[in-house]
Write a structure and sequence with these properties.
Shape: globular
Oligomer: single chain
Low-confidence stretches: none
Strand order of the largest sheet: 1-2-6
Helix content: 25-40%
Structural class: alpha/beta
Mean pLDDT: 95
Amino acid sequence: MSDIPERVDAAVVGSGITGLAAALTLAEGGAKVAVYEKQRSLGGTSNFLHGTFAVESAMQRERFIDFNRDEAFKSTMEYSHWLADPRVVRAIINESGPTIAWLQDQGVVFTDATINMPEAPRTYHVVKGKGEAMVKALVTQAKSRGVGIFPGVPVTRLLK
């Protein structure tokens, strides 16, 4: 496998949506990045998602959904009986709307902001083509920015 680089600025292990988003973000910042996936296909279980959480997205504003970040924070913390790390919860919630916009910039299409459980606020952003389409869009963008993607290559150790 001579096309696998010996040195990169960042090695991402796993080609799920989180790994692909990390690789793409690093590449946008100028890093030389390689993504290694032990499976022969990319995306893992990310291929099967239907949507993702977000608050204060453009899609929600267009639909007059007024559930805001503070309400989402309180709801999430109450759901966890205030055991979740509030700084992490706040960061996830505060970045959720901008993350939807970033994903849209990468070519991901969302069809609706709806509920994912009874009586829940409309924070569930449905992906057109499900997770498989999101994985494909992120892979396309990552490759266009020079990210090396290596399916079927398990990582057994990292040299630093």
